[in-house]
Specification:
- The protein is an all-alpha fold.
- It has a domain of 109 residues.
- The protein contains five helices and no strands.
- The two termini are 45 Å apart.
Amino acid sequence: MASADNLQFQLSAAELQRLHDALDIVDEVLGSKLITLSGKDIQRLPKASDGTLPFIEKSLDLAEQQPKFAPAYIDIPGLRLDLDAYRLLSRLSQRLRPLADNLNATTIKAGSEAYVAALAYYNSAQQALRQNVSGAQAVVDELKNRFESSSQRKADKPKP
C-alpha cells in the first residue's frame, strides 16, 4: 500500500535513453574542457563572485586601455578569456544547480523510502519468527547479516 508521501519515481526506457544521450552530449562538449580540483585546492583559491566581478571587469578594461601598468606575468588576452569563461560557466552552473539539487534530493528520498520499507519488512519477519511462522528464520538470517556486520565494524573501531 502506497503512503501519501511515497515518491513513486519512474522513468521509461525511452526517457532513460534520452537522458543518457543528453548526458553523453554534455560530457562530449564539456568533459575535456573541465578540470578537477581537490577540496584543499578549492579552499586555497581566491573566489570570484558577484561582489568581485565589477573589480575584475574594471581591471580588465583598464589593463586593455593602459597595458603599461600590467606586470609582465599577466596575460591580458588570457584575463579576457578567463572572465568570459567565468561568465559562461556561471550561467551554465546556475542553470544546472537546481536540477542537480533536486536530483540529489530525489535520490535521498527514494533511498530513504526504500530503506524504511526494507526495515519494516525485516521487523515483520522478526515478529513472524517470534511467533514461529514457517520460513521466517531463513528471511531473518539472510537480512540480519547487514546489521551484524555493521555492529561488528563499530565494535572493531578503536576507541579514541
